[in-house]
Automatic annotation (TrEMBL):
Its cofactor is Zn(2+). Keywords: Aminoacyl-tRNA synthetase, Ligase, Metal-binding, Zinc. This is Threonyl/alanyl tRNA synthetase SAD. GO terms for molecular function: aminoacyl-tRNA deacylase activity; aminoacyl-tRNA ligase activity; ATP binding; metal ion binding. The keyword Magnesium does not apply. It comes from Candidatus Magasanikbacteria bacterium GW2011_GWC2_37_14. GO terms for biological process: tRNA aminoacylation. It comes from the Bacteria. Residues 96-139 form the Threonyl/alanyl tRNA synthetase SAD domain. It holds the Pfam family tRNA_SAD.
């Protein structure tokens, strides 16, 4: 956890938000290993993989290039439950830390992040394949 690169971590939130916005897909796993980040996305709709990859990579890089401010906020648990699926949250918490990347990418998270998306660089999806009929696994790097 402590080894996570703030750039990679912020980029993962952006990529996941784009998957959600464009394809109604949610992230189900992510691994950070050196320069590579591996993410698994659950896909609800059947679209050729190449098309998905191109669209999310382009959209993520547009967002990164918008030099968005990244800010932390704490919100109450009930408010958070109404806004997000919080299945990974431990029992007994009263407040939830969220990270906002611009106004429309909001993720419950306590990890390390950049202060502005201009620090991230360019996101490149290097590999992708389906690990099951509805799970797309990809790896990305930052240049
Ligand atoms: Zn985070």
């Amino acid at each position: 956890m402590s080894e996570i690169d703030p750039k990679q971590h912020s980029a993962e939130h952006i990529l996941s938000a784009v998957f959600g916005q464009l394809f109604n897909s949610k992230i189900i796993d992510s691994r950070f290993r050196g320069n590579n980040v591996r993410c698994d996305y659950e896909l609800e709709i059947k679209i050729p993989t190449e098309e998905i990859i191109k669209e999310v990579e382009d959209r993520a890089n547009i967002i990164i290039s918008e030099n968005r401010e990244v800010v932390f906020e704490e919100i109450g648990l009930e408010q958070a439950k109404a806004l997000y699926s919080l299945h990974r949250l431990p029992d007994g918490v009263k407040n939830v830390s969220i990270v906002k990347i611009g106004s429309d990418i909001i993720t419950p998270c306590k990890g390390p992040h950049v202060k502005n998306t201009k620090e991230i660089g360019i996101l490149k999806i290097r590999t992708h394949h389906l690990v099951s009929p509805n799970v797309l696994r990809l790896t990305f790097v930052l240049d």
